[in-house]
Design brief:
Elements (H helix, E strand, L loop, with lengths): L1 E2 L14 E8 L8 E7 L4 E3 L4 E3 L14 E8 L11 E3 L4 E2 L7 E6 L12 E8 L14 E7 L2
Antiparallel strand pairs: 1-2, 2-10, 3-9, 3-11, 4-5, 6-8, 6-10, 7-9
């Protein structure tokens, strides 16, 4: 797996929201393709100085009392497999991230695919929206973990 870039920068968040993308290129000889998941180490964008977490606070323990939004989404770009019956699926919309280490499937494929270093197989998008009540801080961050599992 190759990830374009070493991080995502959302800049200064507003109530209008911000997003950033990473391109991910995969290659596998797994007979039934791969499944790629992304998970959040913090269950949202966490600030140490403001003691806050940017997420939507729905049914979670990490509540700070302010309902914002923090989502993962993806778009599949399956253009590099020549295997018959190949198909790829993306995240099918944005998924609110509210739990620590909650795995969100961002890509899956059904057959082997080559690494071509030209066309990313999936574009991963992180988006966040603050609220008027979001505590001001410059250290909101998260650590993302990507897991790739071959399906045989």
């Amino acid at each position: 797996m190759t990830i374009s870039g070493t991080g995502l920068e959302l800049g200064t968040l507003t109530t209008a929201g911000k997003s950033a993308n990473l391109g991910i290129e995969l290659g596998t000889n797994a007979t039934n393709g791969v499944v790629v998941t992304a998970s959040s180490a913090n269950g949202g964008l966490r600030s140490i100085t403001a003691s806050g977490v940017i997420n939507n606070d729905a049914n979670i323990a990490n509540k700070d009392g302010v309902a914002e939004s923090y989502t993962f989404a993806s778009t599949a770009n399956p253009t590099d497999s020549s295997v018959a019956d190949f198909s790829a699926t993306d995240s099918a919309g944005a998924h609110e991230v509210n739990a620590v280490n909650q795995a969100v499937t961002i890509y899956s494929s059904t057959r082997p695919e080559k690494t071509d270093a030209v066309n990313d197989d999936v574009t991963f998008t992180v988006a966040a929206t603050s609220a008027d009540e979001t505590a001001a801080a410059s250290d909101y961050s998260d650590t993302l973990t990507f897991t790739v599992v071959g399906t045989f």
